[in-house]
Amino acid sequence: MKSFPRHIDRLAAGLMLLWVVNAFGQQEPLFEQGKGQYKNENYTEAIANWTKVLEAGEHSAALYFNLGNAYYKLNQVGPSIYYYEKALQLSPNDSDIKNNLSFAKNATIDAIEPLPQTLFAKWDSQVSGLMTYEGWAWTTVLAALVLSLCFLMYYFTADSGRKRLYFAGFIIGAFVMITGLTMSYRVYDKSLNDRHAIVFAESTQIKSEPSMGSETSFVLHEGTQVQILELEGEWFHIQIADGKDGWIIAADIKEL
């Protein structure tokens, strides 16, 4: 089978890059227009423009953050929390996102006491939340480079003082590399298997079975975050932070 000439591959790559840049450039005016509308307190119009940017395939922490702010100004708690959480997924260390998310969560009705965590679980949650899995992957790569450099310098250096310094750098690099590799796998696995959603309905009944005729286990309100366990037809089996579980109509929540 004949392969494409290299110049054709390069041309295709160039055209793809040009298309991406052009698509981004076309959406930038909508984003800026939305910012102007937000400043003028035209929150509905700003949301409409930013939603068009999303529909065009553009995603960023800034876009989600602005959408969260606009929905919060309209007192729509569910959408505001949803978009703050989406922003936090892309920028987990952003203090502005965290603060606004905290304000939005304070506006929710449901007071759910989370189950106590073990010391290891708390540590794992705090460390894994420092970066996305891509961030941890890059940390692993950089640590591996530092480790390799320190090993080479240690091997070719005769001075005993420098050898100790490079050996210490090698140990630190190895520790950071192993930690980064472990956390990148853990965060990536969580992103695939831990499915969460935000309640969008003003109030929704959580059923004991995936049927409207089944017993109501408890009631949730707009803005509450749930974990999705499984899907059956038009019902999601969900669990909340205090360990309670039940079935909710899929239309009443929006998956993160």
Number of domains: 3
- Gross morphology: globular
Helix and strand element order = HHHHHHHHEEEEEEE
The amount of helix comes to 55-70%
Give an overview in words:
Helices cover 60% and strands 14% of the residues. Helix 2 runs antiparallel to helix 3 (61-73), helix 3 runs antiparallel to helix 4 (77-90) and helix 7 (133-156) packs antiparallel against helix 8 (160-193). It has eight helices and seven strands, in the order ααααααααβββββββ. By secondary structure, it is of the alpha+beta class. The protein has a five-stranded antiparallel sheet. The chain has a two-stranded antiparallel sheet with strand order 2-3. The chain is globular. Strand 2 and strand 3 (216-221) form a beta hairpin. It has three domains: 6-106, Alpha Horseshoe (Serine Threonine Protein Phosphatase 5, Tetratricopeptide repeat); 119-193; 195-255, SH3 Domains (SH3 type barrels, Roll), CATH 2.30.30. The two termini are 44 Å apart. It has helices at 6-39, 43-55, 61-73, 77-90, 95-106, 119-128, 133-156, 160-193; strands spanning 195-199, 203-207, 216-221, 225-232, 235-239, 245-249, 253-255. Residues 1-24 have low confidence and may be disordered.
